[in-house]
Amino acid sequence: MRANPLPEFIDWKIEPGLTGYEPAVTEMESRVEAIRRGRAPEKVWLLEHPPLYTAGTSAKAGDLIDSRFPVFQSGRGGQYTYHGPGQRVAYVMLDLRRRRPDVRRYVEDLEEWLIRTLAWFGVRGERRSGRVGIWVVHGDGTEDKIAAVGVRLRHWVSYHGISLNVDPDLGHFGGIVPCGIRDERFGVTSLAALGVPANMTAVDEALRLSFEEVFGPLRDIS
Prior knowledge:
Helix content: 10-25%
């Protein structure tokens, strides 16, 4: 049994425009502390960043090929990744003490959320052992990453989260070795590159419906 009942809702906020990385991290950390102290409900924050690279805790210096955009050190797990316009980032702040204090299960739930979201658009997303995130398999056997997962916990409250490529400039990934994977069989893709005519509004709706299936009810906030 859980020590405390789950809240009736999770705040769901969609941020307009582009949000700088450092202000986003500051706001996340503030909300995480408020959740930990029982002063604020859990939250999912959807946004887009201007073009930038982030380095996770396992990032290798050699995987930064061309620092054409600002580079930020990130406390999340993983290696280098790209964020930019056309990519939906969702920062997920959940109290795993009240849910299940199991990091592996939490990451699997985030992946399940992405898989269900992609299914709304007829895209089969798959997990791969040793390669965190969601992958799309092509007929020639190659695989492209369409969504990334990178999390951090503070006193069992999660932050950072997921990113889903809707219609970003895929050429921007060329400045890094995404997630440290150098194998030429593995690249990056997006819904647009797969020929899926989905806009951000449609993706957000699919994300919302799928999130509620996996994690529980949401409440819109401004």
